[in-house]
Amino acid sequence: MFRGIWRRSSRKRGRSKKAIIITFLLPELILLLTFVLTPIVGTFVISFQTDNGYGPDNYYKVITETSPDKALVLPKNIESLRPPPWGALIHNIVWVLIHLPLVVFLGLALAYLLHEVKGSSIVKTIIFLGMVIPMIVGGLLIRFMYDGTLGVVPLLFKTLGINSLAKTWTNYPQTALISLILGSVWLWTGFSLTVYSAAFESLPKSYIEAAKIDGASGLQIFFKIVIPLLRHATIVVVVMTMLWDLKIFDIVYVSTLGGPGGSSNVMALVMYLYFARALDYGRSAATAVILALITLIPGAWFIKQVVKSGKEKR
Amino acid sequence: MVDVHLRGIVKKFGHTIALRGIDLDVEDGEFVVLLGPSGCGKTTTLRIIAGLEKPTKGKVIFGNRDVTYLPPRERNISMVFQSYAVWPHMKVYDNIAFPLKIKKVPKEEIDRKVKWAAELLQISDLLDRYPHQLSGGQRQRVAVARAIVVEPQVLLMDEPLSNLDALLRVKMRSELKKLQRRIKVTTIYVTHDQVEAMTMGDRIAVMKDGKIMQIGTPTEIYHKPANMFVAGFIGSPQMNFIDVTVSEEADGLSLVSEDFKIKLPPDIAELVKQYTGKTLVMGIRPEHIYPEGFAPSNVKRTVKISGVVDFVEALGSDTIIHLNTGSRIIVVKASGTYHTNIGEKLNVELGLDKIHIFRKDTEEAIL
User: Fold this and answer.
1) Are A215 and B79 a contacting pair at CB < 8 A?
2) At the topology level of CATH, where does A58-313 sit?
């Protein structure tokens, strides 16, 4: 009899526990459904909407577009090794290829060099300023930095006697993309420096001292001990930087608007131009879906790494 | 192997003086323990010997070579850290092989030496594992294996057993000592655990406030402490300290306290004669105070005091009795079979041949 009562009361307890969980989860689920899931599904549906109903036309047109200011890939320019435009998707990839290694290397090197220096927090703060300022302002600063009459970069080359580079970089297809990429290094290095500095702080000093005692040089310690031990920080920096590079928009929008002649165009800007200028929501949505699918690759890898590192005990 | 000499080592961190002139001679193949409480400077001394810190003043000499300003890699030393510092991204084999790889030792020799060290530390079956797959004791063995694989001139150990549980610590204590005897490496070992120091060290340097208070064999340190700090730091429970006045009476000198009066035999009287009328401190270890009738037969001279049992700690092997004499608490270490209860009146005997006498002002030992 007692067993029956106990079972009934435990079933009751289980039901009330479920009710509590649902009560707490429901507001978040409603918000997620309204503001995340619905727009995702909506975008996906719109991307397949055509004048004649539903189909993959938008994707086909977006991918095969040859106009330099909207094209994702321009095979002719790439094959003939012409300067940009190469297409927004290729520009994004170039952005990742140049920006990512520079940000990882600079963040890591600065964190390693500064981690035992007195007053290094001042230097770190200055570098971190790039992260604090709004990207729109950052974009404007980049524009001024490369301006032929006001900018520090052309001035530097003028001083060095390299007159071919003493010009407004953002006005020329050969230099527009690279100037934005290098400018964004400054804006984003603060992030990698902060992540690596925090990782350094949590690294036991004895790991490095043990290597010193064992006879390792500074470089050997850096490559054989420090870099492998900062693997988790590197994963965060690499993934976040890749996502940032793939989604890059505001800097390009305010400094070049993808020009000249689409030579600094990126996917997010193409998506915006379809949406706000051409009022072609179908293609805008198709571009957004393609961009989302591409960003899913590093995103999924990151989640896999996080799950893996959660399983590993240090 | 090599002998190690420290000459007048001073170390300042800003305005804080960590070491105030350390002189230490460690013989070739000797096992010396630096013992002291937290903040006494023992780890700083070890780090200066390792080359991880530079002294503000003084010299570090290995054999005839002044190594004071040489980086660690030019000293041919090894060190075992308190946290083991076994790199988590390397397998056990790679951890042990690391110092050899850095020294560009041929692969076959690395393999031979790693296997030798692993066998010595009984971790041969763990070589293919990562540190996170090992227990604390196994990691500690890996750290020691990595330290000895290069056959260093000097082996430094910074509280290597403090992260282990009590049972494993006892086991590793004897294993480390045996290992050191086997490979005959000059070893300097830092600990705050007096039992570790007493059981492992050939000699112990007891440190306080950046100074070495006494250097000696464990027996010397225990039986002839140089001052009240050493006397109090070594031994568990701590030595009892009792203020006494040297009083001259018709039949000779006596030590007088509120609880007892000890008539001094001529040999001790001669030593304290100059302090007549002054206050000294008498020290006696709890194990040299016996419940009445329980003094060993070889203890001839005793003095009796009485009190009420304030607290009893039955440890099995020993019974620790806190005796309230009315003016102070005296701790007595009796045999584990001895039984008494809180509140009972108890007479105890102080073994006079085991007393220590210290100056009250300088705390230095007179006897």
Assistant:
1) no
2) MetI-like fold (1.10.3720)
